[in-house]
Automatic annotation (TrEMBL), chain A:
<protein>
    <submittedName>
        <fullName>Succinate dehydrogenase C subunit</fullName>
    </submittedName>
</protein>
<dbReference type="GO" id="GO:0006099">
    <property type="term" value="P:tricarboxylic acid cycle"/>
</dbReference>
<keyword id="KW-0349">Heme</keyword>
<feature type="region of interest" description="Disordered">
    <location>
        <begin position="29"/>
        <end position="49"/>
    </location>
</feature>
<dbReference type="Pfam" id="PF01127">
    <property type="entry name" value="Sdh_cyt"/>
</dbReference>
<keyword id="KW-0472">Membrane</keyword>
<dbReference type="GO" id="GO:0005743">
    <property type="term" value="C:mitochondrial inner membrane"/>
</dbReference>
<dbReference type="InterPro" id="IPR000701">
    <property type="entry name" value="SuccDH_FuR_B_TM-su"/>
</dbReference>
<feature type="transmembrane region" description="Helical">
    <location>
        <begin position="118"/>
        <end position="143"/>
    </location>
</feature>
From TrEMBL, chain B:
<keyword id="KW-0812">Transmembrane</keyword>
<comment type="similarity">
    <text>Belongs to the CybS family.</text>
</comment>
<dbReference type="GO" id="GO:0048039">
    <property type="term" value="F:ubiquinone binding"/>
</dbReference>
<keyword id="KW-1133">Transmembrane helix</keyword>
<keyword id="KW-0999">Mitochondrion inner membrane</keyword>
<protein>
    <recommendedName>
        <fullName>Succinate dehydrogenase [ubiquinone] cytochrome b small subunit</fullName>
    </recommendedName>
</protein>
<dbReference type="GO" id="GO:0020037">
    <property type="term" value="F:heme binding"/>
</dbReference>
<dbReference type="InterPro" id="IPR007992">
    <property type="entry name" value="CybS"/>
</dbReference>
<dbReference type="GO" id="GO:0046872">
    <property type="term" value="F:metal ion binding"/>
</dbReference>
């Protein structure tokens, strides 16, 4: 708006002498004495084929800022327990899948994964290792179980407000701690 | 102990030092004179390219609205209800071995099957969430088929374990008590 007015005034006065006031104004408005119009590639909609338009858009998209990464969000019980539920679930299911596939492949590779062999190997471990391994299995198992019940409670429409989410979250953490300790020393 | 020495005046001074003095000391003065290359205005956070941008998919013309998928209860409510039924069913199946000490081979087999179905649903949801099919259709297909294939093999493996070994519940119990 401002530079347009300057441009019109400047063109009117161009044949005559330019006043010092106008000179300084035009310098402030643009870098050159006459403002050059610029158009970015995306705005020239005429004479652009569909394929060209797509490639222009695809190129523009790659320059767009990506959404912020997880580290900028405040650690909160809500999303921490949510992602822990998925991580523990994938870890537990992954363990079951790996064991079942290994058990199926064991005869081919000469491995011994019978329950008796595993129990004998586990029994020969020192007590600290036994408790540690049991805790490492019990923690994701109990957390995913208690949090699963929390999810089923939400599915009935209960405890869906912020207060309910936090209260049930702390209950899940408490129950997970107790049951993990119990199972680890069982 | 140390907090006794931190008077309010000191705290103010410390926070003033933190907010004002630190950036000036950390960043050399030349940084204020040189125009910093920025991709987008108002984008103040540091750009971390974790993965390269994937294939850019544009369906239809640029101004087309996103298509609304056809609604089908077997993809929505029935599927949801089935998932909940499996989850609810897992509760008594998990408690029974603890409460009774041991379970019948049939209950053990049902537990194994329910765990595999529950796992399959969980893995499927993870693939859908983290490998968007619109951007990476081939990768999604490959992962889905790997999941389907491995799930069938896992079911065969668990069948073998149930018939040739002592069963899931009894095996866990024996290892845990070893």
């Amino acid at each position: 708006m401002f530079s347009n007015t300057t441009f019109r005034t400047a063109s009117r006065l161009s044949s005559r002498q330019v006043s010092p006031l106008l000179k300084s104004t035009s310098v402030r408005a643009t870098s050159s004495s006459f403002p050059a119009q610029t158009r970015s590639a995306g705005t020239t909609s005429e004479n652009v084929t569909q394929d060209q338009a797509h490639s222009i858009l695809a190129a523009q998209r790659k320059l767009r800022p990506i959404s912020p990464h997880l580290s900028i969000y405040q650690p909160q019980l809500t999303w921490y327990l949510s992602i822990l539920n998925r991580i523990t679930g994938v870890a537990l299911s992954g363990g079951i899948y790996v064991f079942a596939l290994a058990y199926l492949a064991a005869p081919t590779f000469g491995l011994h994964l019978e329950s008796a062999t595993i129990a004998a190997a586990f029994g020969s471990l020192p007590v600290a290792a036994k408790v540690g391994i049991k805790a490492a299995v019990a923690l994701p198992f109990t957390f995913h179980s208690w949090n699963g019940i929390r999810h089923l409670l939400w599915d009935t429409g209960k405890a869906l407000d912020i207060k309910g989410v936090y209260r049930t979250g702390y209950v899940v953490l408490g129950l997970t701690t107790l049951s993990t300790v119990y199972l680890a020393f069982m | 102990m140390a907090s006794a020495f931190r008077t309010s005046a000191l705290r103010t001074a410390a926070s003033a030092f933190k907010t004002c003095a630190r950036p000036a000391l950390a960043a050399p003065k030349i940084a204020f004179l040189k125009p910093q290359p920025r991709i987008a205005a108002f984008h103040t956070s540091k750009s971390l390219s974790i993965l390269p941008p994937g294939r850019q998919v544009i369906e239809g013309t640029i101004n087309d609205a996103a298509p609304v998928p056809e609604s089908n209860p077997s993809h929505g409510s029935y599927h949801w209800t089935f998932e909940r039924l499996v989850s609810v069913g897992l509760i008594p199946l998990t408690i029974a071995p603890f409460a009774l000490g041991s379970v019948s081979p049939v209950t053990d087999a049902v537990l194994g099957a329910a765990v595999v179905i529950h796992s399959y649903i969980g893995f499927e949801s993870s693939i859908i969430d983290y490998i968007p099919g619109r951007k990476h259709p081939t990768a999604k297909k490959v992962f889905m088929w790997i999941l389907k294939g491995s799930t069938v093999l896992v079911l065969v493996g668990l069948y073998e374990f149930e018939t040739n070994d002592v069963g899931i519940t009894e095996a866990v119990k024996r290892v845990w008590k070893a």
